[in-house]
Amino acid sequence: MTREPIIHQDDDDVVDDNVADNNVADNNRADNEGDRDLRPQRMQDMVGQQDVYDRLQIAVEAAGKRDEPLGHILFDGPPGLGKTTFAMCIPRELNVHVQLTSGAALKAPKDLVPYLTNADERSVLFVDEIHRLPIAVEEYLYTAMEDFRVDIVHGEGTHARTLNLWLKPFTLIGATTRSGTLSAPLRDRFQIREHLDFYSIDELSEIVRRNAVKLQVELHPTAAEEIASRSRGTPRVANNHLRWVRDFVTTKADGNITSELALAALEMAGVDDLGLDQQDRTYLDTIIRVFGGGPAGVEAIAHTMNVPPDTLSDEVEPYLLRSELVVRTT
Ligand code: ADP
Description:
The protein is 48% helix and 12% strand. It is an alpha/beta fold. Adenosine-5'-diphosphate binds at residues 35, 38-40, 46-49, 79-85, 175, 207, 235-236, 239.
């Protein structure tokens, strides 16, 4: 029998899957409405990332056979590549509960304690944007991850006493867009580390085709490729394009997506044939025009563009680097 994972919020409320996604969004992740209904529910429904899938499948099966919690897992990679999707599928494969939170929401160790004490045996605690954990919270996680123990200090000054609280063995799944900024002690405590890479056009076409079925819209196969080739190697972008194209054909045509209509819709949205959007083009234009072709530091480019440097290094640069439209210098 398979059981849907139950998601706990920070009190003891048991909530359903939709609330789970709200919970993540509340915690400031860059999620959007569209992710919810298009997100694959099981690992076997995920497209691509075959190596990651194969390794996780083995780890999940082995943990099941040994009746032990799965080792802690760290996913890293640019936004929209499936870190959360993997993290949400794993508890379903293990048939265990999952709790969701984000590094930005855990401001002090006391914010983390309820998640740890609520964790059932072998359940999953998913911490998105784990690189945003303050150092005090991160250090608090060390013993929780390694020995399934936390130390709680009671009272103050000379009356202070430390209470060792034993936790049920659980699995921490962390996701980060910047594993480089994680401290080595935290990184080393994850037994499984997986890097998610950009998707091929074929893989994205397959995702677009499957999601057109979910959205109940007719899609010509060539239109799937057009959308996929303009999606910057990223499923979330492909899903957003598909939704926009669906809106476009609903208003401007008979509701069926042909490649001509897909192209017209994406052109209207400012997406070019390389899949670059206005922000990507402004970034390239800034380097060419203001910095004479570079090299230029990300902070300087961000200031000129009036956007946070993190947006550029997380969302813009990875794809431009991968497409060799920019190169990184020392
Ligand atoms: P991340 O956590 O890395 O930012 P998500 O896991 O939230 O990315 O993925 C964004 C959306 O992209 C998901 O809602 C899902 O619909 C889609 N997606 C991601 N990876 C895959 C995949 N391998 N197969 C199919 N859809 C995917």
